[in-house]
Design a protein that fits this description.
The complex is a heterotrimer of chains A (816), B (115) and C (177). Chain A has helices at 13-52, 56-78, 104-127, 134-153, 157-175, 182-213, 218-223, 232-249, 258-261, 267-276, 280-293, 297-319, 324-344, 354-379, 395-409, 415-430, 433-458, 473-491, 497-502, 524-546, 559-581, 586-607, 609-613, 625-643, 647-667, 671-694, 697-705, 712-735, 743-754, 759-767, 769-788, and strands spanning 83-91, 96-103, 791-793. Chain A is an all-alpha fold. In chain A, helix 4 runs antiparallel to helix 5. The radius of gyration of chain A is 34 Å and the shape is elongated. The termini of chain A are far apart. Mean pLDDT of chain A is 83; it is low at 1-17 and 796-816. Chain B is elongated, with a radius of gyration of 20 Å. Chain C has 177 residues and is mainly α. Chain C has one domain (8-172). Chain C is 64% helix and 9% strand. In chain C, helix 2 packs across helix 3 and helix 4 packs antiparallel against helix 5 (116-143). The model of chain C is unreliable at 168-177 (pLDDT under 50). The chains are: A mainly alpha (816), B mainly alpha (115), C mainly alpha (177).
Chain lengths: 816, 115, 177
Amino acid sequence: MCGYFLAAGPPTGAWAADFREIAMASTTITLSLVILLPVLAVPLVLALASRLGPRVGYLTAAAPLGSAGLLAWIAASAGSQPRVILEIPWVPQLGVNLSFLVDGLSIFYGFVICAIGVLVCWYAAEYLGRKYAHARFYSCLLFFMAAMLGTVFSNNLLLLFVFWELTGVASFLLIGFFHESDESRRGARQALLVTAATGLCMLVGIILLGLASGTYSLARLADGSLSDYKDVGWITASCVLLLVGAFGKSAQFPFQFWLPGAMAAPTPVSAYLHSATMVKLGVFLTGRIFPIFHSLELWFWLVCGVGFFTMLLGAFLALRSNDLKAILAYSTVSQLGFLIGAYGVGSKTGIQADTLHVLSHVLYKGSLFMTAGIVDHCTGLRDVRRLGGLGRYMPVTAFSAAIGVAALAGLPLTTGFISKELLLADLVDAKAWVWFALVVISATLTVAFAARLFFNVFTGSKPDALSVHRPGWAIQTPPLLLAMAALILGAFPGLLDGTLNAIKVAGLQEEEPIHLALWHGFNLEVLTTALIILCGGGLYLLCQKSGWKRAEIPGFLRFDVAFERGLDGLSVFSKKLTLALRADWPPAYLPIVIFFLLISLAGTVAVSSTRFFEGFSAIDISLSPLHTFVAFMIAASLVGVIVLRRWTTQLIALSVAGFFLTFYFVLYRAPDLAMTQILVESASVVMILLLLSRFPSSQLLRSEEKREAKGRIFRVILSGGVGLVMTCLVLFADRHSHPDPIGPKYLELSKPLAEGTNAVNTILVDFRGFDTLGEITVLLVATLGALGLMMRYKRGRAGNDPASAPGFFLEKKRRP
Amino acid sequence: MQIETALLVGLLFAVSVYLLLHKSFVRILFGFVTLTNATNLFLISMSGDPDGKRAPILGEGSGPIVDPLPQALVLTAIVIGFGLTIYLIMLLYRIFLDAKTTDASKLFLPEADDE
Amino acid sequence: MKATTDSFLVRALIGLVFLLVNIVSVYLLLRGHNLPGGGFIGGLMTGMSFILLGLVRGWEELQRELPVPPLRLASFGLLLAMITGTAPMLFGRQFLTQYQLHLDYVPLIGEVHIGTPLLFDVGVFLLVSCITVKLVIVLARSTSGLPAFTPGEVPYYASELEGPIEETANEEDRHAN
C-alpha cells in the first residue's frame, strides 16, 4: 500500500518531501480506516446482536464515532481549506486507482454522515422493538455508512460510481427491511430501480466525460477548463447524464415519487438515509461537478429549473398529504430541490454557503423525522388528521418539533432562516425573478404545512380514540440535540463562520470569507420573508377552516402509480411476447436453434473451404487396435441408448458409454480426468435413477412408442449434420494447432513457480486459480438454483391471469 | 489416434442431438448427458495425439508430455457438467410434478387432452 | 425410492467402506498437487461415499446424522478458496499468490510440503463434496414422498409465499390409486 499526493504547495527540499511522503502514507491508512471502520464492525454486531438485543444499537454507534474521531484527526492535520489526493493503486493499467480526495466538501459530508450516524444508531436502539432482526438491520446500516463515506471521499469518478451504487443497494435492503409487507417491497423496488437506472445514466455520463477529458479524477477535472476538452457536445451530454444521476438519487422531478415510497423503511432509516445523507448525494454530486460544468449555459437552466420546480412540486404535494412521514418525505423532496437549485444561481467565481444550506437541512429534517418516529412509536398512528394534543404527553419532543418546523418554515432564530435569506439574496443578486417567484411560492406552502405539522399534532385537544404512552428520555435526546443545534447556530450564526471558511473548496465556493449574521439590515429579503410567513400562516388558517378537504394527491401527479403500472405492463408484455413466440416450448424452438447453428457452422466451413480442408489428405488414418476397441465400445453402447426400448437398459447403455469414456481419457494420458469422469458417472447414475423411479412407467412407454416415430428423418438429418461438422472441427483443430501453445509453458513453470509436479492440478489451483474460483462459484449457484426448484409458489396466492402469475413459463395457457 | 477421436466426437454429438430432439424427458436427459461427454471429448482432443507421450506428471520418466491445459479445462468442465446435469434432473422432476407429464410436447399446451 | 437394505452384512460393512473411501479421498486431496488427485476428485469421492451411506442406511438417517448443514460447509469452502486467493493482496502481492511451507522432517511423516494451493484445494473439496451430498439428499427425500426440506431448513430456501412441491406428488399418487 503506498500513498502519494498532489498537493497545493510544492514540497521544499528533499527532507520535506520525505516527511510529507510519510505523513501522506499515514493519512491514507487513516482514511481507509475511516471508510472501513463501519464494515469492520459488522462481524462484531452480528456476533453480539442476539445477546444484546436492541441495545446493540449503542455498540453500533461506536463505529461512526470512531470514524468521526479519525476524520477529525485527518481534518486537523490537513489544515484550513485542504486539498489532498490519496491514491492506492488498483488497476493502474486502466488508470483506475483507489483515489480519494480530502477537501472541505468531503470532510464536511464525512462529518455529517458520522455524526448523524451516531445519533441514528442511538435513536434506533431505543426505537426498534425487541422483535426486530437487529443483526440484519445494523449490518445494513453499517454497510451503508461505509458506502456513503466511500462516495464522498472518492476522487476517481468510477470509484465514486461504485460506492454510489452500493449506497443504493444498502438503501434497497433497508427500505425492504419488512420484506413480508407488500408496501415495503414495492417501495424498495421503486427506489432501487429509479436510483439504479439513473445511476447507469450517470455511469454513461462519467465515461463520456472521461473520454472527452482524458481523466476520471475529479480534482484534475475541476482544475482543467472545458475549452481544453475535445468536444463541447460530449461535455454537455455528460453534464446532462451526470445531473440525471444526481436528480434520481435526490428524488428530483420527475423521479420524486420514489422517496415517499421509501418511507416504508423503519423511521431511523428514513431519518438517516432518506433525509440526512443518501438523498444528499445528488446535492453532493452537483457540488462536485459544479466547478467542471458551471460555465455551460445549460447548467443554470437545468439545475435551477429542475431544482426550483421540484421545490414547488414537493411543497405542493406535502401540503396535500396526510401521513406524517409522507409530509416529511415530500418536504424533503422540496428542500432537496432548494439545495440543488442553489447550485444553479452561483456566479462564475463560485457559490456561497451551500454547506450551510445542507447543514441546516440535516439538522432540522433529521430532528423532524425522529420526532415523527416518536409520535408513531407512542401512538401507533401517523395520520395527521387523527392526531392532536400530544404536546402535553411529550413536551420535549414537542419542543424539538417546534424548532424543527420553525427551521423548516424559515422563521428567524433558526438555521433555516439564515439559509433561506442567503438564497433569496443570491436570487436577487442574480436577478432571476422567475426562480425567485418559485421559491417564494414554495416557501409559503412550506410555512402552511409546517404549521400543520406542529399545531395539528402537538397542540389542541387529544382525540378520544388516541391512546398515548409517554416516550422515554433516551429516545427523545437525539432529536433534541439536532434541534438545539439548529436553534443555537440559528441564533448565533457567527459561530459557523470559522468552520465554513475552513472547509471552502476552490472553484466551488467564492473566495471571499463568509460572515453570517442574524440581521443584515432592512432589505428585500427580510420583507419577502415577512410576507412568506404571513401568507403561509394565512394559508394554514384557510386550510384549517376547510378541514384539509383537498388533502389528496391528484391522480396525474401519482408518478408512483404510473411507474408501477408501467413496470407491470412491461412484464406482462414480455410474457405475452414469449408465449406468442412459443419460446417456452422446446419442441418448437430447439430444432430451429440447432438448425441455425448447423447452417452457420457449415457456412463457415464452406466459405473457408480451401483453408479448412487443407492438409486433410495428410491425416494419419492408421488405427491402433486398443483405441479403436474402446471407441467402438462407446459407439456401440450409444447406439444401444437409441435402439433399446426400456429406460432401464438405456440407462445401463449410457453408463457403459460413460465408463468406457473413462478409458478413453486414460488413453489420452489424463489420469485426473479419468478419476473425475468415473466418479461423476456414478453419482449421475444414482441421481438419474432417483428421478426415473418417480416417473410413471406408463407414460415412459407411451411416449416411447407413439410420438417419437414422427419426424425421425428430420432428426436424423439434423443430428447427422451436427456430428459431421464436429468431426471436421476436430480434424481441423488437429491440423491447425496454435504454433505457440500455452500448455507446455505451464508444464515448464509448474515446478519452479507452483511447486507442484501435477501440471493439471497446478493449473487448476494456481495458474488459473481464478477460473477455478469462478467455476466452484457456478457450482454453488447451480446448487442453490436446483434447491430453489424444490419449492413453489403456493397455489391461490397469485391472480388468475397467467401473465401476472409469479412463475414465468410454467403456467398453462387457459382455455378461452 | 485423432481419426478415431474425430469420428467418436462426431458420433457422440450426433447421438446427443438426436436424443435432445425427442419429446420424452428421459431421452432429453440422456441426450444432455451425452452432450456433456461429447463436449469434454471434443475439448480433450485439442491436446493433440497422445501417442508416445507421458501424462502431465513431472518427475516420472522422460520424453514428451501431453498438453496439460485441455485436461485442466476438461476437469472443471466435467464437474460443471455434473452440476448442470443435476440441475436438469431437478428441473425435469419439478416440471413433471407441475405438469404431470413426461412428454415435452404436452407442456404449455391448452389442457385439451389432460382431462 | 426406498433404498435401504435389510442385509446385516451390508449394513455392518458400509461403515468400513465409508471410512476407507474417505481415507482414499483425503489422500487424493493431499497428494493432488504432485500426483493425480486434487480437490475435485477428492470431493466427488467423498460425495460418493455419502451416497453409498445414504443408499444403505436411508437418506433420512443420513441427514439426521450430518454434523453440519452441507450447504453451510460448501459456502465455507468457497469462502476458504476466496480468502486463500485474496489474502496475498493484503500484503501487496497479486491475487492468488501462493506461499509454501517446507519442513524437512516431521516425526512419523518425514518430509512435508504445505502450500496455500492446498488450502484452495480444500475449499474446492468441501464445496464439491457438500453440494453432492445436499443435492442427492434433497432429491432422494423428495422422490420418496417426503418434503424436500426439513421444516427447519425451509426458511433458508423459500419465502413465505412458497410451499413444498410434494403436495402435488401426493395428489398425483391419489389420482393413480
